[in-house]
Amino acid sequence: MKRFLILSGFVVGAALLAPLATADHHHDKRYYDRDGRDYHVYNNQEDRAYRVYLGEQHRDYREFRKMNRHDQQQYFRWRHEHSDQTLFKIEIR
Q1: Among the listed residues 55, 53, 24, 27, the one whose alpha carbon sits nearest the alpha carbon of residue 40
Q2: Is residue 14 part of a domain?
Q3: pLDDT by position in tens, the chain (length 93)
Q4: Enclosing domain of residue 39
Q5: Global pTM?
Q6: Can you tell me the distance from the alpha carbon of 59 to that of 42, in angstroms, rounded to the nearest whole number?
Q7: In this structure, is residue 12 part of a structural domain?
């Protein structure tokens, strides 16, 4: 009986921790832009814009949350000059 209780405790613990292990920590996180004095929500659309920025800068992909603050500020400056409409040409028919 003790083995069953111990095993069921591990199973319940693993079930509770599984969503934390698979969570994408940088999505839907807010970053403060000091120069622009506003917040940027890093979500899937912002990730697409960030990848466009890296392509224009001829830089390799690195997770945004792992970039240093100076590089993040450079991206925010670029982002203020490039709206969603210019980056993502959405056609409505």
Answers
A1: 27
A2: no
A3: 777 667 676 666 666 665 555 455 556 899 999 999 999 999 998 999 999 999 999 999 999 999 999 999 999 999 999 988 888 776 666
A4: 25-93
A5: 0.66
A6: 19
A7: no
